[in-house]
Amino acid sequence: MKIKKYTASTIQEAMLKVKMDLGKDALIINTRNIRGKGFFKFFKKPTVEVIAAVDEQKSSSIEIQDAANFREALNKQSASVIKMQNQTRLDLLESKFNSMEETLKNIYTQIKKISDESIDNSSTSNCKKSKKGLPQLFYDNLIKNEVDADIANELISQVCEQLGDNDSVNDFINTLYKKVTSLIGKPSTISLEHSKKPYVVIFAGPTGVGKTTTIAKLAAHYYLSYNKKVSMITADTYRIAAVEQLKVYADILGIPLSIVRSPGEMKEAIKNFEDSDLILIDTAGRSYRDTSSFEEIKQTINAADADEIYIVLSMTMSTRNCKEVLENYKFLNNYKIIFTKYDEISAPGIILNTLYYARKQVSYITTGQNVPDDIEVFDTDKIAKKIIGNIN
Ligand SMILES: Nc1nc2c(ncn2[C@@H]2O[C@H](COP(=O)(O)OP(=O)(O)O)[C@@H](O)[C@H]2O)c(=O)[nH]1
Ligand SMILES: [Mg+2]
């Protein structure tokens, strides 16, 4: 038991001190008023004295109980804080997981798109999937160079079929190059490897393609460069200017020219030049649509019984037009093709289209109006590279 004494000016003040010090369970043992002693006791304020006691055990058990309650409250509080923290962490993880899922979905969509495109590209050009884009690029180049779509498709498909999965861009280009060069073939020019004299060569083709000019170029070339005895015959008597044109070249070169007015005169004219090494014969460019005139050209060609026949085609013609012309020369067993006016075109696809259709040998290519310089032996390598084009 704990006993203590408190003094205050009033009983209420004393009781407050007791409770604050000993708690609400304190027992009041005694209270009394105290008066001072002597003369001054009348001037002093009265004082109250309270004696109070408290059971110490009960008091400490109350404190213990309070502490336990406090700890419990504290635990409860910290548990709820931990719970809150855990919840926050879970929320955070969930949002991270959601955003990862979103990212994965995006990646998946992109990969699928790329692989779908690759399948699309490969199927259009009939190529293996790994060749994505490359066949299309070269197909586009061929088309840009005016190669017929059917031929371009066939070439690209053949290249794709031939190549394995691991082949490179270079392999693709080389294979395509080989296909194009083999389609064009090696050029074949007027033969000098023969003992026949005179060697007769005849030129045919539509009006204005450059037959007469080409003959003048070749005459100059074989006369000046190969020192051959060259003669010329013209069967184009429909236009006076045509005869005059060749006569001018003949005079400049100093070589003989004979004019043939009907197929019957051809044999005689050739016979007259029997001491020549080479006879070059010009024909009229009559329209094949004019059947009777064309018949006369046929007879002229047959009458010449030439050792070599050349069909002259201008590259400014359309592929369709070239095909039509060649269709009309089907009566010939064999002929070679001369392409003129290369200087006037930007896309050489017509060469491939025509040769693909005709399956005949190519020979010369002319590159301008200048006689005798603007003519070359056809350069298969150069033209094939031009037809294939570059990839940028
Ligand atoms: N730009 C160009 N013009 C040419 C070429 N070859 C011929 N020509 C021109 O084409 C026109 C017709 O030529 P020509 O020889 O009379 O044709 P032909 O009717 O077939 O005999 C002429 O103006 C020639 O100068 C060539 O390679 N390039
Ligand atoms: Mg002519």
Keywords:
binds magnesium ion; three-stranded antiparallel sheet; 11 strands; 392 residues; Rossmann fold; eight-stranded mixed sheet; rod-shaped
Topology:
Layout: E1 2-8, H1 11-22, E2 27-34, E3 47-54, H2 56-124, H3 134-144, H4 149-162, H5 169-184, E4 199-204, H6 211-224, E5 230-234, H7 240-253, E6 257-259, H8 263-272, E7 278-282, H9 291-304, E8 308-314, H10 319-328, E9 336-340, H11 349-358, E10 361-366, E11 375-377, H12 380-388
Residues 207-213, 285, 340-341, 343-344, 366-369, 374 line the site of guanosine-5'-diphosphate (GDP).
Polypeptide structure, described:
The protein is α/β, with parallel strands linked by helices and 392 residues long. The protein folds into three domains: 2-54; 125-184; 199-388, Rossmann fold (3-Layer(aba) Sandwich). It has helices at 11-22, 56-124, 134-144, 149-162, 169-184, 211-224, 240-253, 263-272, 291-304, 319-328, 349-358, 380-388, and strands at residues 2-8, 27-34, 47-54, 199-204, 230-234, 257-259, 278-282, 308-314, 336-340, 361-366, 375-377. It has an eight-stranded mixed sheet with strand order 6-5-7-4-8-9-10-11, sandwiched between helices. A three-stranded antiparallel sheet has the order 1-3-2. Helix 6 packs parallel to helix 7 (240-253) and helix 10 packs parallel to helix 11. The longest helix has 69 residues, at 56-124. The chain is rod-shaped and about 180 Å long. Bound molecules: guanosine-5'-diphosphate and magnesium ion. The site of guanosine-5'-diphosphate has 17 residues, from helix 6.
